[in-house]
Amino acid sequence: MKDYRLFDITDFVMDEDFIRWVYERRPEDEAAWHAWLTRNPDKHLLVAEARSILESVYIAPPVLTEPEIEQETARLLQTIRQQPAEAPVRTVNRVKWRTWYTVAAAVLVACVTGGLYFFSGRGTAAASFTWEKMTASRQLIENVNTSDKPITIALPDGSAISLAPGSRVGYANHFDSSATRDVYLSGEAFFEVTKNPDRPFRVFANEIVTKVLGTSFTVRSFEKDTTIQVIVRTGKVTVYSQAVTNTRRSATDHKPGEVILTPNQQLVYEKTAQKFQKVLLDDPLLIIPRVKEQKMEYEEAGLIGVFNELSKAYGISIVYDSELFEKCTVTADLRNETFYHKLDLICSAIGASYEVIDGQVVIQSNGCQ
Amino acid sequence: MSENDAQADQDWLQRLQCSDEQALAALMKKYYTDLYSYASRFTKDEGLIKDCIQEVFISLWQRRDTAAPILSLRYYLLRAAKNKVLKSLHRKVYKTDTLDGQESYDFYQEFSVERFIIEKQVSEEKAAALRNILQQLSKRQHEVIYLKFYQRLDHGQIADLMNISRQSVYNLLHEALQKLHGLWHAEYLTK
User: Fold this and answer.
1) Residue B93 has what pLDDT?
2) Does the beta-carbon distance from B54 to A59 stay under 8 Å?
3) A13, A100, A355: residue with CB nearest B177
């Protein structure tokens, strides 16, 4: 299964399976896409737009009746039966045909070598960041979770790791005396890191590095997975690819290709494409106390203020045209609703829509009447 | 082109190699509509289209013993159909056979826009904008869109079939999609 969460609109429009779904409406595709959209409600808009593009370039098949095709088939069979086996039918330009096979053969070779190159290439890229490679030259204290429940590991600096089943972590035995607090991970773990601005805490997971000063977050990086995921619950983390770190800069440098993650954001790193994408969690959590959420009942409230409060409550940035909404008001009860449902309520009240782009909510509207 | 479909084609071709006429008939039935659709982009002459498709399958039958494998039957048939149609057209028009692979040809294409506009209840203004965008597309863009979305060829096959680079295929598609995207973006209101 492709990770469609990483798809932008062009990717969808160009995707063979997506095209088939839109044009052919096979029941099995309907079911699969419906399920996917239920899991990824923030993708509805993107998918709707991609569908519209495809539907607006629909080309109807020619009108040919069954008997017409039958008749042509009969004519064909008659022709080939009348042919003596060795006589050529009409003159086919032999030269043309030959060049054509060459093309076909060249395409085949290209595909095969491309495939080999791809696999061997991927092999080496991935191999350079396996657990063995990452930890070979280092003296580490290792923990492996062979049970079927998460285990908690206390680190010398007071940080805690909740290690998922089938995962392992390692950290240097002089963890307390080095300039950075480095942890190596294979699998999935949730980290709660004590604040220490002078000693960044870094998690190395296959190709990517997650760097924090003090926060809580999850890293999921099993070698068998095609993606690596980082999810932030509190605070802020930066993530970058290991390929960048190997250029021997200091650990505190701000590097190009770094992605900054804030709460309720999830970063998906696709190993083969080597690209990062921010997505919002399916169900963002409040980052303010519940008590404050109980005040989210609005009557004729200024829309901009409501968006600001919502943005603060979840730590998710909401982008809109403030000029457009200057005079808009909204009446809605947003208490005890999920983040996306809150957005739905507001948007249906003002006749707007939203989509999630790169971990931010973008409101689309023509203003309010 | 799903895996199963590709496998089914290979099975038919296998039977074709053993001179199984029924396999040839089955393949003709399977691809007739799509080949007819493609051929009718180049000419409105129905008799000529039907004769060309006949020839494509006669050729397929004749090459059944050759060892060269056909990787994608759909691509092979479309390419053969295009060559046959353009050749016959040139014979008709010039009574000569001067093909250097760089021939220009017409590409007639009609999108089913009206159906879409009615189904989606598109506003009059949007409908006009959509017709306008589709009218502005070049012949090559029409052909790329047709091969990508109607015939579902991959970019490499489209490039080979149109005698252009993969990059051009991508650019032509991308430009057309950008325009359409601009039209639909922000159109979406939660219903």
Assistant:
1) 60
2) no
3) A13
Q: Which residues contact A108 (CB under 8 A, 6 or more apart)?
A: B69, B71
State the Cα angle at A297 between A292 and A299, rounded to 5°: 140
- Cα A354 to Cα A340: distance, rounded to the nearest angstrom: 10
Tokens linked to A92: 């086919």
Residue A159: pLDDT band (50, 70, 90) is confident
Cα–Cα distance, B179 to A299 (Å, whole number)? 40
Half-sphere CA count of B24, side-chain side, radius 13 A: 28
Select from B22, B31, B100, B112 the residue whose CB has the most chain A CBs within 10 Å, as the one to mutate to test that interface.
B112
Q: Can you tell me which residue has the tokens 């598109």? A: B122
Find residues 97-136 of chain B whose CB sits inside 8 Å of chain A. Answer: 109-113, 115-116, 119-120, 130, 134
pLDDT (tens digit, 9 = 90+) per residue, B21-71? 899 999 999 999 999 999 999 988 889 999 999 999 999 998 887 767 888
Of A52, A60, A77, the CB nearest to B112: A60
Over the range B92-125, which residues count as b (16 or more CB within 10 Å of their CB) and which as e?
eeeeeeeeeeeeeeeeebebebeebbeeeebeee
Q: Which residues of A touch B110 (CB under 8 A)?
A: 59-60
Instruction: With H, G, I as helix, E, B as strand and everything else as coil, classify residue A87.
Output: coil
Q: Do the strands A318-319 and A360-364 form a parallel or antiparallel pair, or are they unpaired?
A: parallel
Chain B positions in Cβ-Cβ contact with residue A77 (cut-off 8 Å): 21, 24-25
Q: Which two tokens stand for residue A34?
A: 């419906």
* Contact state of B152 with A19 under an 8 Å Cβ cutoff: yes
Asked if residues A208 and A215 have their Cβ atoms less than 8 Å apart, the reply is: no
Residue A208's closest CA among A194, A219, A224?
A219
User: With contact defined as beta carbons under 8 Å apart, do A80 and A73 qualify?
Assistant: no
For residue A243, the model assigns a pLDDT of 63
Nearest to A243, CA basis, from A275, A279, A278: A275
B190 contacts A347? CB cut-off 8 A: yes
B58–A16: do the CB atoms touch at under 8 Å? no
Token digits of residue B100: 């250097």
Say how far apart CA B77 and CA B59 lie, in whole Å: 10
What is the rounded CA–CA span in Å between residue A182 and residue A205?
11
User: What is the torsion angle, in degrees rounded to the nearest 10, for the CA atoms of residue A252, residue A257, residue A262 and residue A266?
Assistant: -130
Minimal Cα–Cα distance from B178 to chain A, Å? 9
CA–CA dist B177, B63 (Å, integer): 39
